Amino acid sequence: MTAEQLGISPVLMAAANSSGGVMGKMVDAQSIVVASTATRWYGHEGEILRYVFFHSIVLAILVGGLVTLQAYVAPFSSMVVGGH
């Protein structure tokens, strides 16, 4: 409903929401604990978070930019299936 009210493809917004959820998993506490356990690097969860946090910010900016291009810029908006 919100996407349609904004004049944006609901398909694009669903894909962006799904991508955001996956990116959030990088800085999820459970994922960081699993990573430290899997690598036997116990007690270094803070270091892992500091390393991954920068990458998650960069990826969020890139995905946000791509979604913005696909929503508003003509050549990119043609890549959206079922777009307006």
Rounded mean pLDDT is 89
Structural class, by secondary structure, is: mainly alpha
**Secondary-structure element sequence?**
HHHHH
C-alpha Rg (nearest Å): 17 Å
Q: Give the distance, in angstroms, between the N- and C-terminal Cα atoms.
A: 14 Å
Tally of distinct domains = 1
Task: Characterize the biggest β-sheet.
Answer: none
Task: Please work out how many helical segments DSSP would assign.
Answer: 5
- Weakly predicted, low-confidence segments: none
Helical fraction equals: over 70%
Question: What is the number of E strands?
Answer: 0
The proportion of strand residues reads under 5%
Shape: elongated
Present the secondary structure layout.
Elements: H1 2-6, H2 10-24, H3 29-38, H4 45-72, H5 74-77
What does this molecule look like?
There is one protein chain. By secondary structure, the chain is an all-alpha fold. Helices cover 74% and strands 0% of the residues. It has helices spanning 2-6, 10-24, 29-38, 45-72, 74-77. Helix 2 runs antiparallel to helix 4. The longest helix is centred in the C-terminal third of the chain and has 28 residues, at 45-72. The mean pLDDT is 89.
Spell out the key features of this protein:
single chain; 84 residues; mainly alpha; elongated
Summarize this entry quickly.
The protein has 84 residues and is mainly α.
